[in-house]
Amino acid sequence: MDTVQKKRPLAAVIFDMDGLMFDTERIVKRSWDEAAPLLGMEPLGHHIYHTLGMNLARRRQYFKEACGPDFPFEEFTECYRGISREILRREGLPVKPGLYELLDCLKEKKIPMAVATSSSARHAGENLREAGVEQYFSCMITGDQVKRSKPDPEIYLLACRKLGVPPEEAMALEDSANGLRAALDAGVMAVMVPDLLTDLPELEPYLTAKLPSLTAVRDYIKKMWP
Fold it and tell me: Do you know which InterPro entries this protein is assigned to (predicted)?
C-alpha cells in the first residue's frame, strides 16, 4: 500500500521512537534473552512481539499475566536494561536509514515534528541527544507522561494538542500494532514502517500507507505534499 486513501493537508508528523527511528527493539529482544537465564528463567526475547509499543506499566502487566503473578519484573527490568546499555556502549545507537534525510526534508518544508513514544522521558531524551536529532522536535510525549499506554490514542491526541494541529492533519509513523491502533483511533494518518513485525493484515486496510523505510517516507511526502 503506497497511496493516500483520502488526501488531507499535512500539518505535522509524529514519530514513534524504538523500532522506527532507532533499531533498538532488536537490542531489547537480545537483552531479554540474556537477562532471563541470569535470573534462572528461559530466554524471554520472543515476548517482544507481544509488547511492542507498550509503556512500562502495561509491559509489567503483560509479564505478570504471561509469566505468572510472581514474575520478578523489577529485577528483570534492571537486569536487561544494564545489558542493553552495555550493548549500546559497545555498538552505538543504531539509527534507522533515512532518518536524518526525512527530518531535514520536513524541516525544509516547515512541517512541525513531535515524538510520541512509550519509552520513558529519560530513555527517549538520551537517545534523541545521542543521535543529534533533539532539536528537530517541537515536543516529546513519553510513556510516563500519559495515563493510558498505546494502543490507547491518548499519546497521539496529546501530541496533536501540543503541536496545535487537528489530528486529521497529522501523520503518525509507527512500526507496531499497538502504535498503529493508537494512531488510527486518534484519527491521524497512520503510516507503517515495518521493523520486527513486517505484516499486519488486520490493520493495513485502514492505514494511509505502508512504506519500507524512512527514506521511502521522505519520498512519499515529497510526492504527495510537494
Answer: HAD-like_sf, HAD-SF_hydro_IA, HAD_sf, PGP-like_dom2
Radius of gyration of the chain from its Cα atoms, rounded to whole angstroms: 17
Amino acid at 214: L
Residue 158 has pLDDT above 60, yes or no: yes
> What is d(CA 42, CA 24) in angstroms, rounded to the nearest whole number?
22
Catalytic residue ranges: 16
Give pLDDT tens digits for 126-154.
Answer: 999 999 999 999 999 999 999 998 999 99
When pLDDT is cut at 50, 70 and 90, the band that residue 7 belongs to is low
pTM of the model: 0.92
| 119-128 confidence digits (pLDDT tens) | 999 999 999 9
The CA-based diameter of the chain, rounded to the nearest angstrom, is: 56
With helix as H, strand as E and coil as C, how does the chain read? CCCCCCCCCCCEEEECCECCCECCHHHHHHHHHHHHHHCCCCCCHHHHHHHCCCCHHHHHHHHHHHHCCCCCHHHHHHHHHHHHHHHHHHHCCCECCCHHHHHHHHHHCCCCEEEECCCCHHHHHHHHHHHCCHHHCCEEECHHHCCCCCCCCHHHHHHHHHHCCCHHHEEEEECCHHHHHHHHHHCCEEEECCCCCCCCCCCHHHCCEECCCHHHHHHHHHHHCC
Q: For position 3, what pLDDT does the model report? A: 41
